Amino acid sequence: MIHHYQQLITIFNQCFANSDNTRLLKGDDEPIYLPADETTPYHRVIFAHGFYASALHEVAHWCIAGEKRRQLVDYGYWYCPDGRDLQTQHQFENVEIKPQALEWLFCVASDFPFNVSCDNLQGDCEPDRFAFQHRVRQQVLSYLQYGISPRAQLFIQALQRFYQTPPLTAVHFKEERYARKI
């Protein structure tokens, strides 16, 4: 199947445009979340450059953000751009485990390849991609065992219906399947 970002926009908006007053939109540059304001009456999850993977990642962040966070630009989260030192890279990875775990679940539900992202190409340290992937996988397994948030579960089910994929199980999340060197 060919994956196109418009499919995700349609699926997301069918799930959440009415219930959560939120729409998924293609952006031109950096991804961002913008709450409704005086010029736009709905919340916007904006992903980068029409990239399918970017859309899934931004939806993952949205699924994690609580109601108060969804009233803030970019959920009020801390972000340090590419070019991080070792300590800052560890902080970045710690906050990215849950969103990347959801992203991986979304990828499998849509039969789309997942690649863990250390997002530090210009940094002064070499991230341990495999160790980070292992931590993300552990979070995926925890979600599968203990449950996924209702919004994430709704999105996963909509992806599975659209892409005709089976229920998610631990078998779908083998580390070696997605391991790749930078």
Q: How far is it from the N-terminal to the C-terminal residue, by CA? A: 26 Å
Number of domains: 1
Quaternary status: single chain
Report the biggest beta sheet as strand number plus sense, adding barrel if it closes. 3 strands, mixed
Low-confidence stretches: 177-182
Shape: globular
Mean pLDDT: 87
The percent range for strand residues is 5-15%
Q: Decide which structural class fits the backbone.
A: mainly alpha
Gyration radius over CA: 16 Å
Order of helices and strands: HEEEHHHHH
Percentage of helical residues? 40-55%
H/I helix tally: 6
Q: Taking strands numbered 1, 2, ... along the chain, how are they ordered across the largest sheet?
A: 1-3-2
Task: Give the number of DSSP strands.
Answer: 3
Structural features, described:
This is Elongation factor P hydroxylase. It holds the Pfam family EpmC. By secondary structure, the chain is mainly α. The chain has one domain. 47% of the residues lie in helices and 7% in strands. It is built from 6 helices and 3 strands, in the order αβββααααα. It has a 3-stranded mixed β-sheet. Helix 1 (5-16) packs across helix 5 (150-163), helix 3 crosses helix 4 (129-146) and helix 3 (86-109) crosses helix 5 (150-163). 29% of the residues are buried. Residues 177-182 have low confidence and may be disordered.
Secondary-structure map:
Blueprint: H1 5-16, E1 22-26, E2 32-34, E3 43-47, H2 52-64, H3 86-109, H4 129-146, H5 150-163, H6 175-178
Parallel strand pairs: 1-3
Antiparallel strand pairs: 2-3
Helix pairs in contact: 1-2, 1-5, 2-3, 3-4, 3-5
